[in-house]
Amino acid sequence: MNSSNPLILYGVPLSQPVRAVMWLLLYKRLPFEMVLINPGSKGDNGSRNPSYLAKNPGGTIPCIEEPDGFTLGEAHAILCY
């Protein structure tokens, strides 16, 4: 992964699971871009919006997306990955 195509982290910094993933990415010095997602909302940036559910059918945060389109949700799974 290079800095021209960083990993995307979906969530809100107030969420402890999102912060855990964010801290690990910072610790590993992996470039990432944060996309704010409003948990439970069906709005444009909501976790219940069809475009977000296409990436993460569980509709939870955090979720990561790699430049190749691979997505993974749930903090524990992301931290293990």
Verbal overview:
The protein is an alpha+beta fold and 81 residues long. It has helices spanning 16-27, 50-55, 75-80, and strands spanning 7-11, 32-36, 63-65, 71-73. It starts with 6 loop residues before the first strand and ends with a helix. The relative contact order is 0.23.
Low-confidence stretches: none
Count all strands and give the number.
Answer: 4
What structural class do helix, strand and pairing data support?
Answer: alpha+beta
Shape, please? globular
Radius of gyration: 12 Å
- How many H/I helical runs? 3
Distance between the termini: 14 Å
Q: Report the sheet with the most strands, covering strand number, pairing sense and barrel closure.
A: 4 strands, mixed
Report the helical percentage.
25-40%
Oligomerization:
single chain
Quick recap of the structure?
The protein is of the alpha+beta class and 81 residues long.
Write the layout of secondary structure elements.
Elements: E1 7-11, H1 16-27, E2 32-36, H2 50-55, E3 63-65, E4 71-73, H3 75-80
Parallel strand pairs: 1-2
Antiparallel strand pairs: 1-3, 3-4
Describe the structure using short key phrases.
alpha+beta, 20% strand, 30% helix, 81 residues
